[in-house]
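REVIEWER CHECKLIST
Item 1: Sequence provided? yes
Item 2: Single chain? yes
Item 3: Sequence as submitted:
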Amino acid sequence: MGFDRAYAVPGSGARISSWVGMRPLQIACAYGRSAAVLLVMLCGGLLPHLSAQSVSKPDDEEIKARVEFYRRAIAAESARPELHFQLGLALYDLGNTTQAQAAFSEELRMNPTNHRCRLVLGMLRVQQRDYRAAIQDLESALSADPSLKQAYYPLGQAWFHLGNFQKARDCLEKAAEVESPIPELYAMLSQTDYNLGQKEDAVRASRLDTAARRFGLAQAAATVGSWTEADRLISEFLAAFPRAANGLYLKAVIAFNGFRNFNEAKSLLEQVLAEDKDNREARRFLAVLQWTGGNKEAFEKEMNVVLTAEPLDGQAHYYMGRYLLEKGALTSARQHLETAQSLRPSDYRVATDLARVYETLGLVREAEEKHREAVRLVSKWPSKDPYVYTNYAEYLVNQGRSGAALEMLDQMLHGPHPLPQALYVAGIACASSGKLADAEEYLKRAAASAPGDPKVHLALAEVYDRTGRKAEAKTERSVADRAVSAGRN
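Item 4: Structure as written out by the authors:
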């Protein structure tokens, strides 16, 4: 299996829930099937039409789905520990700080020992410039649970703005030891050192600030496909911060997307997880790479770890659903893909694969609705994923509407480099309507472009059978058998 679509460049705006290291409460099973229905993105190209994960809008939709989930859960069982906290995290990530603060306050009223909640409330107070209240919350959280080292950076910010530069420096130095490199942290540390008259330390922090900014530049270069420049910048970043998980992750994305270096990407992701075993994005990406490399057992293991840690991970549900679809486990595939769609309603990949599940299950009307939805969704993206159209076209062929299928594929077939899948679907469309010469031409071109695809050779064998060319049909079936055997190995 080769990647035809890239794993998405990670977005620059980290969600507070991931930055603080929080994981949503594992309560999906506690609310039975209704929760599953409610529940029921750095990658693509596992199989040809897995496209790049979305970076912004679908993620916001996923967070909105979390908000609704936790609100319904609170309505059903308002006293359950952590529900208000998780609701607050989701609201915070959406930018609704007023409601987030109310949710955090309610959680602490019910559960004063939720020190993670007090930590996040302190962060929120820093954002609101209520520095003294922030310090009280952050120091209280850190005193109760010294492992909450994420408190040091906002504590440093609060002391800095109150003019206590020595305390600010102490906190910022500790933050620099535990955080992924944040340019603003080093800029503030440099200014703090300068205010304390420590000029050499100020220069050192300023240099680290410059190095930390390489991450954002590398990210921007990767986003526009300037892979060599992105690799240079992220290498400079990692030279200064060799263990930074965000830098290792981005370098893995660049290694795979830009240079198709599977082994380097896999090794880098393993390094990320060695530094941060709870890094969900890295584990999800690694799982996808395992699948691509043919290690299905490792894929299932890693993706199940992701879904156990975060039952509301829409992308993980999508990948698991797609995997189960290819495996033929249609009922489970449907559950995961319906979950993914509830969390990522604008993700055309989910819609097109869910359509395939429905068609295979014999739900013809539902399948066509999803195919049309996928076409509508993909039309909003600058780069139109062709597999949305070939999937719909293949559905039309299966429903005896070959003319409509060929009309849908027309523009794709006459481009400079037609997709093998488009040629294959055009071939079976022509064959089903009796245009055997055209079918043979399309299928031969598909076989030349994708010689290892057994279904193309089987379709070509059928055309040869119908035209009385038994020997050629036998040859194509032998090629298909070898391709199947090679795929198993």
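Item 5: Key structural point noted by reviewer: The domain at 403-489 is CATH 1.25.40.10 (Serine Threonine Protein Phosphatase 5, Tetratricopeptide repeat).
Item 6: Recommendation: ____
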